[in-house]
From TrEMBL:
Compartments where located: Cell membrane
One Pfam family cited in the UniProt record for this chain: 7tm_4
Domain G-protein coupled receptors family 1 profile as annotated: residue spans: 1-126
Lineage: Eukaryota, Metazoa, Chordata, Craniata, Vertebrata
GO CC annotations, alphabetized: plasma membrane
One of the GO biological process terms: G protein-coupled receptor signaling pathway
Membrane topology according to the record: Multi-pass membrane protein
TM region positions: 36-57, 78-97, 109-128
Keyword Membrane: yes
GO molecular function: olfactory receptor activity
Keyword Amino-acid biosynthesis set for record: no
PROSITE patterns documented for this protein: G_PROTEIN_RECEP_F1_2
Protein name: G-protein coupled receptors family 1 profile domain-containing protein
Length: 148
């Protein structure tokens, strides 16, 4: 993407497309439209495939006879869906908004969120599914365990 910038200072963590489009000195309408199509393909298509696979998983889980088995399967899926929602929610908010509506403060927060915070939370979310880790966390927080 070769586009003249108006000499403004880039006030962001890294070169995000919405930030660069906002700093451009020329009309970005055509570029914005092309980039929007590319972003839809890159962001929405994988999300649709992931949600479609979860629909198939949900149908399979509903066929499980035991309630304990269903609960365990849905618990695993819930943590996965939570991580997917965190990542794709912030990515969609960042990349699928028009450049003229882009907010620097909000953009910085969302960039920080999906590049740093979500990957940091990911292991924590999956680790908290382990019963021993949950008990240790409750002990550290001073609440002890009442489930014994």
């Amino acid at each position: 993407m070769a586009m003249p910038l108006c000499g403004h200072q880039l006030n962001h963590f890294f070169c995000e497309l919405p930030v660069l489009l906002k700093l451009a000195c020329e009309d970005t309408g055509g570029t914005e439209a092309n980039l929007f199509v590319a972003r839809v393909i890159i962001v929405i298509c994988p999300l649709v495939l992931i949600l479609g696979s979860y629909a198939h998983i949900a149908r399979a889980v509903l066929n499980i006879k035991s309630m304990a088995g269903r609960r365990k399967a849905f618990g695993t899926c819930a943590s996965h869906l939570f991580v997917v929602t965190l990542f794709y929610g912030s990515a969609i908010s960042t990349y699928l908004q028009p450049a003229h509506r882009y907010s620097e403060k909000e953009g910085k927060f969302l960039a920080l969120f999906y590049t740093i915070i979500t990957p940091m939370l990911n292991p924590l979310i999956y680790t908290l599914r382990n019963k021993d880790v949950k008990e240790a966390l409750w002990k550290v927080l001073g609440r002890g365990t009442d489930s014994k």
